[in-house]
Amino acid sequence: MSEEAFKSLPAFPVESAASPEERPVGLVEIAGRVKWFDVSKGYGFIVPDSGEGDVLIHVTVLRRDGFQTIYEGARVVAEAQRRDKGMQVFRVLSVTAGEGAQASQLPPTRLRAQATNVGGFEIVVVKWFNRARGFGFLTRGEGTEDIFVHMETLRRYGFADPQPGDTMLARFGPGPKGLLAAEVRPLDGGRGHSSH
Question: Coil, strand or helix: which one is 173?
Fold first, then answer.
């Protein structure tokens, strides 16, 4: 199912959250990596190892099977069923390497612009972030130039939903229209999992 085909659906069908006892016929086991998953939208997609089309995964299925969220690059094994618009996860069997995945294991970002002459990590604060628009700005403090940050950069490094006032470490450099974040990390050295 393409992301575009799914976006037009107003709400996810209730049948997706069927209990395990209501096992549908025609389930197939799939394994692959998370392309993206957005808790606020309630769904995401897995790219199967088989090379077939993306497989839809809904938050109700994920939570029913004991997971709160999954991160880009996580490895998922699941049972899926063919639906009108493509394959859809029915049951999550396992999730590995999502929370501890290193940046090198994650798919490359598809940013339109790249920062040049990127410096070392500096402490920054989220000035504002708009999920719907897919970007926001970081600041090093009053009187400093804002740093543009793209949603893909934040997701790549595990930040799901940054809020104004959140602090993090960022490497950034000049971009086509000003400073541009190239990499972000939580202050404690782990991965960012903000999900307010």
Answer: strand
pLDDT digits (tens, 9 = 90+) for 129-180: 887 777 899 999 999 999 999 888 887 788 877 889 999 999 999 887 889 9
Phi-psi region at 164: left, alpha or beta (left = phi > 0; alpha = psi -120 to 50): beta
Contact 160, 59 (CB under 8 A): no
Residue of 65, 94, 72 lying closest to 156 (CA atoms): 72
* The pLDDT of residue 89 is above 50: yes
Rounded (5°) CA angle 104-80-98: 25
Phi/psi for 155 (5° steps) reads: -65, -40
Yes or no: say if 5 and 83 are a contact pair by the CB < 8 Å rule.
no
Cβ atoms of residues 167 and 123 within 8 Å: yes
Separation CA 33–CA 107 (nearest Å): 9
